[in-house]
Task: structure prediction
Amino acid sequence: MVDSLKKPEFQEIRPGVKAPAKETILTPRFYTTDFDEMAAMDISVNEDELQAIIAEFRADYNRHHFVRDDEFEQSWEHIDGETRQMFVEFLERSCTAEFSGFLLYKELSRKLKGKNPVLAEGFELMSRDEARHAGFLNKAMSDFNLSLDLGFLTQHRKYTFFKPKFIFYATYLSEKIGYWRYITIYRHLESHPEDRIYPIFRFFENWCQDENRHGDFFDAVMRAQPSILNDWKARLWCRFFLLSVFATMFLNDIQRSGFYASLGLDAREYDIHVIRKTNETAGRVFPVILNVDHPEFFAALDQCTRNNEKLSAIVASKTPKVLQFFQKLPFYASTTWQLVRLYFMKPLRIDEVQPAVR
Result:
């Protein structure tokens, strides 16, 4: 634990530029895909809806939103110790995730230009939004005398290849869960302004609407490609991506419960609410959703967090690395088992619960 009376020390690649967080299975990823396959997609069956969403993108409702006001012009030295460390980590993770979206969408718009103009324009306008988000977050980090070198991230992060349909599943869920995360924090702090420790949270209401519109774009693209949603393989993949996104968020947030406590939120309750809302939202397009109200669902995720705590304690110990490997095995096995159990837990088929979900 960081001594609350001391300023946390962050590793820097040069003065004032934070070294990127170590890449793990839980850190935001950078993606690439098969651009030719994406360009060849026929989206005519749902082009009207896509054009309507792109018209909203063009309207650019938030073009004047991300402007720092006088509230930022003050010292933030009073946010110190562990709270400061967790807050900088929150800004870094958020900035990295938004920048990852910018890179992917910008490259898609460039590669699809002239081949699939509707998708190209949609991705170009979404990349504009993501660039604003990342820049606003990076500027916030400068209030804590740090920043990220986004060019360095571009060159040094590993890129994960996903086929286009997997990009659609993952980015749709990323945008929609982002909406529910931002709006939930915003509404809580609107009711409890005494917990708003930094002005960036005032921007979350409009900000999350960008995330929502981006998710709607991917919803419309998937509806234009019925094979992405309408067979047994789609049902399996939708379950996989729902569980991956939910488990990753849950494990990350519980590890950083102190950050949420500084905002007056209980991290577990916050995550349960966000997961339920995102799961319900996914039912508007996915053929299946997870049974998150099953009594064993969050109990299994709780066991995964306990395993993570044990693993962290092992890493922090002075035990030789070889012995650490064997000490970790039971906890890795337990987490794997819990996630396998959740994956094979009977999902909710939308064609059976459609009136309740849609």
In short: The CA atoms of residues 86 and 256 lie 7 Å apart. The radius of gyration is 21 Å. The first helix runs from residue 35 to 39.
